[in-house]
Amino acid sequence: MDVYTRILQFSRLVKKSPVNVGSRTAVNLSYTIVTRPDNDPPDEKPPLIICHGLLGTKKNWTYLAKTIHAVTKRIVVRIDLRNHGLSPQTKSHKYEELAEDVLQLMTKLEIDNASLIGHNMGGRTAMSVALMKPSAVASLIVLEMSPASTSAEFTTLFPRIMEAMTAVKLKEKRKVHKARKEVKEQLKNAITNEVIMANVLTNVNVKQDGTIGWTCNLETLMRHFKYISSFPFSLDKGKKYFGPTLFIGGQLSEYIPADDLPRIRELFPKAVVKFVPGAGHFVHRDEPKAVLELVIGFLNDHSE
After folding, report:
1. What is the pLDDT of residues 279-288, one digit of tens each?
2. What's the CATH architecture for 3-150+230-301?
3. 142, 93, 87: which is closest to 120 by C-alpha?
């Protein structure tokens, strides 16, 4: 039985109850598998797992995931990280925990070895998985995030956005698109970047209680932002990931400063750093073609 078939069969059995992993509690993440036509041959390349950024969801990566799958033929799994999208909400949000969530999902789907790609918070999650369990990571791609420092924009912009989100007054709606329109109107002065606005609006959806509202856990994300905005100290002490690693930054962004490159290569000795001309922090949205070329080329070069 090929990897793809095993994953599809197991995905029907996934439950949402927490499962203990080590000394912490991992949660069962919501995920979507990019399917392939039935006539495609089985592909045993390491699957690609995509981790979105702060206040994003797996839906942000729909187009890119489908394109990567179509070109590389490998399985692509988009996930909602904890406290985001359709994944469970918890009272804690630390990178070690996010990494354990991903590792648990890999175990459930019987994925022994996967390539990981993550943007922003998702990039640090992917880095954490690679440092915590290098054998589980075939290759690593990090978009717009460093393990050595945190952009001043990140530490100031995202708290302001979340504060504005908590102030939204949403009347009872029966249609998600109408609720998003109302939220957008209330946030237009606080969020002027169209890409950030689009990301934030994906969090307006049907909640587990059937009402429409924020599906991200703003309370925990705001309370634990100090952990989100810094790389975990426990993973910055003597751990290394020696697998193929690609860092992708936007040329107009300051999230991967030149001063961080020595530390990046200490933790990830095989790291290659590329900057996309004309792109900002949301590099994969600003210049999707350029990012796809880098990602697909990297995956094809490291397909084993």
Report:
1. 999 999 999 9
2. 3-Layer(aba) Sandwich (3.40)
3. 142
